[in-house]
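On clarity, I found the account of how folds are encoded harder to follow than it need be. What matters is that the chain and its backbone geometry are given together, residue for residue. For the editor and my fellow referees, an illustration may be useful. For illustration, here is how one protein appears when written out as sequence plus structure tokens:

___
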Amino acid sequence: MVAFAVGGLLGDTIFHLLPEIFLGEAAPDHARFVMVDPNKNLLLGVAILVGFLTFVAMDKTLRIATGGEGGHDHSHTHKSEEEEEVKRIEPSAETSSVDAPRETNGSIRSRKGGQDKHKDLEILEDMSALRLDPERVGQLWNMREPGRANRWLSEVLEKDDDSGVTQIAIWKSYESAFKPNRDVPVLEATILIHNASKIFENASAQIIEGPEKKFIIKGVRPRSMPKKVEESPVQPMAREVKQSLKPEIPASEPSQSIRLSAYLNLIADFTHNITDGLALSSSFYASPTLGATTTVAVFFHEIPHEVGDFALLIQSGFSKRKAMGAQFVTALGAFLGTCLGIAVQELGKADSGSGNSAGGMNPGGFFGTGLTWGDMLLPFTAGTFLYVGTVAVIPELLETGPNQREETRKTLSQFMAMFLGAGIMLA
């Protein structure tokens, strides 16, 4: 449905709105002469660019204010700051440890220094040992992938050459924490495991042979992993020395910071809804068809965001009633934006009318072209529509998974929906 709305929005903007900006309204029953005025066309193009860049600036400002984690984030970073921070957390030098007999959950053959040695690993299979507290989960809720997954891995796991964690425990724990979030889809299991083997030095995905074959990440353990049943007298000292050499991981931020993030997110939502109201009112002034397609695009685009914002408020300590009330207040921003848009459009009409009453000459026009503020509203609106239809929505259509056949089928259906939406605008 999002693809259909994008096709309709872009189709109506390109097929109807832009020609009307440069050529005027269509009048089939009357002859029409178009005066070529390069300065006028240039100013109209600048107004389109200003509309586009205005929404870029507003979106960027909201992302900076919310730390890039909340609000309406559509960024797709290839190497995010979260990944860089994860790499800085891990130690660069190997820490020494004393090997001693321990309880055997499985065995694996590893090669060190050109020699084969049998090593008994402590393998954790309990997914509950990999869970973060609800406050920290709330902070990670709306981060983009793979930054969120990498940050989560760095906070629930630590390096330990003598331990391992089953892959199913890692995936199930991550899925249970973030699967309800529809705004930021959960990272695929294979990518999550691959990232875990890259984040931690000497960690690798391997198979443990035994009565039941186990797929594990060797070289890591949970940070809250319980003590082993059997330990030699030298093991506690060795583990204490090993822990002292590990860098300290920053503790979870206090609840005050989480609440601040939630309030910033509410402010961002309110401001964003104002821009939605401006876009909706301007689109209906342009044409009823464009208004309808813009409404559909905004509606289906906002549903997953509102669900994600509601979950973030709950995680930040809001009750369900207070969270719903806060969401209702932010929704009022759309009505405020609509009223502002109507006022601007009516003022623009009045300005244009006064110019026409003076014999078609408007000495206050821009650069001698006769263009008024009212004439600049339509191209400004076209620029905002281009932003909504491209930067704000299309990145959602570009998200793909590892299943090539399924993604190919989904991509074809999305293109068909976009062509259908654009084709309706031609009718």
User: Anything to note?
Assistant: Residues 119 and 421 are 61 Å apart (CA to CA). The radius of gyration is 29 Å.
